[in-house]
Amino acid sequence: MKISAGKAASFVASPPEAVRAILLYGPDMGLVRERAGLLTKSIVEDLKDPFRIAEIPANDLREDAARLSDEAAAIAFTGGRRVVRIRDATDTVASPLTDFCDNPTGDALVIVEASNLSPRSKLRKAFEGAECAAAIPCYADEGRALRDVISESLGQSNMRVSADAMAFLLENLGSDRMVSRSELEKLRLYMGEGGEVSLEDAIACIGDSASMTLDDIAFAAAAGNIDRLTHLMDRARREGLAAISILRAVARHFQRLHLASGSVDEGKSVDVALKSLRPPVFFKQADLFRGQLRMWPTNRLGLALTALSEAEVQCKTTGMPADTVCDQTLLRLGAIGRALGNTRR
To answer: Which pLDDT tens digit goes with each residue over 166-186?
Structure first.
């Protein structure tokens, strides 16, 4: 069955017993991981219980399709229902998962984590079309959904948020649920119990995360700052950020540059082009954005977007390591950015 984004939270909070397999997919891999954890905890209280939780890497499932049925039918030594988790799934493992959705074995709940999948994806179609399975999209938090995450996290310490601080948080969070949670936890610990979060408080904490945000990876790639880019990518790996999430964040940045560049080509000033972007460019990044806009010609930005789109397809379809594809693509873009910057000098 197909679960809409609006109903996803309530479904995850109380999944029907008849559902035997759940696919979590989308560009926000932090939200994918968070919902996978919530679903697992709805069945098994201890997330480290080795008897009731089994993990199957997608590559292993591709080589041994029978392992899924074996794990789903296994009986826990300590009793109780089991959970089988499959991470980094792509269409390369659609066949064994389709077979399981058609003829599930045992009583375990199978949770499958994947990055963004197109409507034509075999994996997505299998879960959407099966009565005992469900496909749940996980999109980046924005608008009211992101505001709710902020209010929920800071509300644990009875905090209020000023209008300016909320606007700052909405602008600088949301690309990845786990990153947002981590940054809000930093802010909550910084503030202590109660009180109101001011803009200065928000900048003091969230601003410190500039070296790790997806936006800054995108800015480093476009600026041709290879040293900073490689440093950020290394830290992103340690934080568990998915390659698809990184590629999509960089693509969003290049899309905004491409849109603004098109406006400049039509005769508008750089400042007018920036003001037309929604959401607006964060004021601390405005000068850097202007510099990249002058540095990258519109046609080069179009080629960069094509390269990022092709990289995402490769991550999903070729079986190549997604991290390698992502790193190679961003380093190529960084090299182009550095060359363009040297030309300007």
So the answer is: 888 887 777 678 878 888 988
